[in-house]
Amino acid sequence: MPIEHLLLLVVAIALVAFLYASVGHAGASGYIAVMSLAALSPAVIKPSALVLNILVASIGSWQFYRAGYFSWRLFWPFALLSIPFAFVGGYADLPTHLFKILVGAVLLLSAGYFFWQPHNDSVRREPSKPAAIGAGGVLGLFAGLTGTGGGIFLTPLLLIMRWARTKNAAATSSLFILVNSIAGLLGNVSGARNIPGLVVPLAIAAVMGGAAGSYLGSERFAPALIKRLLAVVLVIAGTKLILTA
Description:
Elements: H1 3-22, H2 28-37, H3 42-67, H4 72-91, H5 96-115, H6 129-146, H7 151-160, H8 166-190, H9 199-219, H10 223-243
């Protein structure tokens, strides 16, 4: 990759990490969108997005835990089956056209979530253990297949079903992203594939952007505008992937 293209990619990854961390996410769908627009192959995109996710989700998980928003009782049923299923999804090697269609759909779904705003932040009821365990398994599989951590699916589910308040949902999703990204990456590496060398400069950019975004997002930024900007990027990238599949 020419050095000027690499520099642009590094800047874009840092910006994505900054924006996502400011609204409590790790950024996998944004990393995938940027790398897809840069015409990188799925073999590079999937493990790279998982590595970046692990780094940024680690920062977010710690901050939400320190702030007192994390609930183990809410988290563990979703995580129970998600971890092994994320490993299976990470191990699977989808054909390029199927990968593009699946990830394109995930990006468009992610855009819809960022356009959507919950108006009721109350908790109606806690999820039943069987429902949470089953949902976690399905979300873990999709997380591994697409190279995301699954938080982009879990957060809307928790809020739409009114199983958690916004910050508690973000805290749960942050650790869910972390454990499933680790499982997905282990599955990907187990499939006789290596972590791309390109991930090193991208990882540095993601950590810097994620640390700054998580701090400023919790202190200063109104998240609504950031979510709209993220949604536009995801729509462009998702549409591009599906049309070129």
